[in-house]
């Protein structure tokens, strides 16, 4: 927008008309004081400023404006009786740009100058935008780098923990073998196996992440019945966590077309999280519903829950709820992988949760999925 400042109403009106005819947005002020008030409130690309005005003259207005941060990019064209007056500006007006036009105003020259200032303004605005985008980009890199470093350190720690346990059990095994103490040998073997399984899962997750990143996560889809898959999964989970009572509600007896192992991986992830993030509880519900062309499977726990504002983040890569992360081991990638698997099957993942009351992590899958024609 352009601000015209002139104490002569005819000048204001005629200048405004010409500029508006050339599609410029125009505001007016009939004194220096009024101009200053308007500059504080609005943003102007250009101010056309009469030099000789009663009260504050044009130069004083320009000096005052040069101190406003709001008017940093604003250019000024003085309308002066003689061009020599310009040298009286003592404080340099260092910002947007300065020019002058002698009276009587030649409209053609004024329009040319206005257009030039507008072009310069647009160019500098674009440059500022580019600079900001570049700075944001650099910051975002930096951030990704930091997250990666953090992830490597957590991942190494997570891998080291079961590895150290395995080493310990193997040493103990050696001693029990020497003693010929078979029951203890069996006990240590079983414990080493549990830790090896943990290692295996961690490495499988890490491999999945790199497959997702490189677009190489492939699916082996076929028809299977979710109910049958669920029977097996719940049995295994119950065996590993005998204190937990897993209550199953609802059925999905029809065949669906999906990658059975990958869907199992998602269910196992939801269940192990439900157990991990629910210390002091012993019940979990698995809700299965079929309807409206889709299947719903939700794993409900009665554990720590997640604050509403953080719920949208939990499916992001490497995300862990900060306040609770130190109390529970994890890499923050299981839900990201689960979301990728479900989305690639045309379904959705989500969570309903209340802090202190528990969470229900769920996924939906379309029932009408069929093999794609080659
Ligand atoms: P991990 O459990 O290894 O940290 P996930 O990707 O499985 O990684 O989960 C991401 C984060 O979501 C967890 O760190 C935890 O903060 C939160 N979360 C996941 N499941 C639950 C749950 N059932 N209850 C509460 N918080 C959960």
Automatic annotation (TrEMBL):
Gene3D superfamilies associated with the record: 1.10.287.130, 3.40.50.2300, Histidine kinase-like ATPase, C-terminal domain (3.30.565.10)
Gene Ontology MF: a single term: ATP binding
Keyword check for Manganese: no
Enzyme class, spelled out: transferase
InterPro entries: CheY-like_superfamily, HATPase_C_sf, HATPase_dom, His_kinase_dom, HisK_dim/P_dom, Sig_transdc_His_kin-like_C, Sig_transdc_resp-reg_receiver
Catalytic activity entry: ATP + protein L-histidine = ADP + protein N-phospho-L-histidine
Lineage, top ranks: Bacteria, Pseudomonadati, Bacteroidota, Sphingobacteriia, Sphingobacteriales
Protein name, entry field: histidine kinase
Span of domain Response regulatory: 1-118
The UniProt record lists the keyword Translocase: no
UniProt keyword list: ATP-binding, Kinase, Membrane, Nucleotide-binding, Phosphoprotein, Transferase, Two-component regulatory system
Coiled coil: none
Protein species of origin: Pedobacter heparinus (strain ATCC 13125 / DSM 2366 / CIP 104194 / JCM 7457 / NBRC 12017 / NCIMB 9290 / NRRL B-14731 / HIM 762-3)
Modified residues (4-aspartylphosphate): 50
Annotated ranges, domain Histidine kinase: 154-369
Record EC number: 2.7.13.3
